[in-house]
Amino acid sequence: MRAIGVIRPNFLTLALFCGLLAWASVLVEGFHPAWWQVVLAVMGAILGHAAVNAFNEVSDFTSGLDLRTVRTPFSGGSGTLPTNPDALPAARIIAWVTLLLTVAIGLWFVIHSGYQLLSYGLVGVVLILLYTRWITRNPILCLMAPGLGFGPVMIAGAAHALAGQFSPVAFWASLPMFFLVSNLLLLNQLPDVEADRSVDRDHLVIRHGVKSAVRVFVLFSVLAPLSLLLGVTLHQLPLGALAGLLTLPALMLSARGAMRSLREPEALKAALVLNVVANNLTPLAMFAGMMLFSR
Description:
Elements: H1 13-28, H2 35-62, H3 80-83, H4 88-113, H5 117-130, H6 139-163, H7 168-188, H8 193-198, H9 204-208, H10 210-233, H11 248-260, H12 267-293
Helix pairs in contact: 1-2, 1-6, 1-7, 1-12, 2-4, 2-5, 2-6, 4-5, 4-6, 5-6, 6-7, 7-10, 7-12, 10-11, 11-12
């Protein structure tokens, strides 16, 4: 089905790895959920990611933004709807079905793990539905929303669902991802700044300029590993979580490329690639380290 591209399947690995990190967090704390509960929680994370991608693609196409952007492998949308405009009704169905399935999984866990989970779910649904139309019109919200969604909401929320209670380990594990995923969307906005401005978006790059956005990107690139180190130092994360620092070279090279792009625009391409690598491999490395070396 041509419309399936709106969920951007190649990028759903990020939600998968965040879900696995939530599982590792509860295992470290001594909880052992059934395998099918783990699968259900991870599927909820993946479906939530698919939903926000689909809603974003539909909104960008109907607003005309897709026709103004210059697509790269990591920014500017999937190109599914501009090349297949007749797939728009199917894309809308995909967006709503993935959201409703996410909500259904969340409600199941609310029933079995406690009503406190509703707070995670409500924030998640708001982020999915309002991100493209409203959140992208506020620089601070637009910067923080992706990291909030993939960090505390997805990782800490999934861990709470699996453990039946708040997971301090998962919360601390979510902090590096808060900074990394916020950076992921921030850097991806650089190639699209003029197109975004044409449809009345008002994110950090538009409001304060590319130079200021790059400075924030570099700051968050430093805060991500520092938050991981702080969690281990305070004994809130196990030593195995330090495996997440294996991606530090990619992270620093991405920050360096972002700074170089201010003088050499071509440097942005490599920075985008390295940024995606750091975002995906950091939670995977943390998961592996916590599973292998924390017991």
